[in-house]
Amino acid sequence: MATKKRALPSGVTEEMIKAWKEEHGDLKIIKVRDADDPTIEYSCVTKRYIASAIFSKVMRALGSSDLAKAASLALQNTWLGGDEQIKKDHRAEFSAGSEVMKDLSKFEGESENL
Predict the structure, then answer these.
(1) Distances (CA, A) of 8 to 45, 55, 70
(2) Phi, psi torsion values for 46, nearest 5 degrees
(3) What is the DSSP string of 66-77?
């Protein structure tokens, strides 16, 4: 049975993925598409977890309602490789960083009214 070859971000090789997995554990490939031109797509590889000091900075940025800063910090501190255009375009960076922030919590919360 033939295995399907995954599309990797530019500049990223299977050897790099293997080494990063050994060093960081779980990885993600994040893809972002231009809403105005869906033929434009960029992708990057990120590690799944960030250091608690960075997590605190991201949470402070969220607490101050600076979502763009929080997304940027999250992406910068999990970025391993990929299309550099993501870092150059604020909209692409925000989209990719927002995907990273979805994974910041290991726990699911729930609340109920009293």
Answers:
(1) 8, 27, 26
(2) -130, 150
(3) -HHHHHHHHHHT
Under DSSP, the state recorded for 89 is: S
pLDDT for residue 106 is more than 70 = no
pTM attached to this predicted model: 0.79
Q: How many degrees, rounded to 5, is the angle at CA 8 between CA 67 and CA 28?
A: 45
Whole-angstrom Cα distance, residue 100 to residue 65? 17
Buried b (16+ CB within 10 A) or exposed e, 41-63: ebbbbbbebbeeebbebbeebbe
Strand order in the sheet with 27-33: 27-33, 41-47, 79-82
CB contact set of 68 (below 8 Å; sequence gap of 6+)? 90, 94
* Cβ neighbours for 25, distance < 8 A, ≥ 6 positions apart: 47, 48, 49
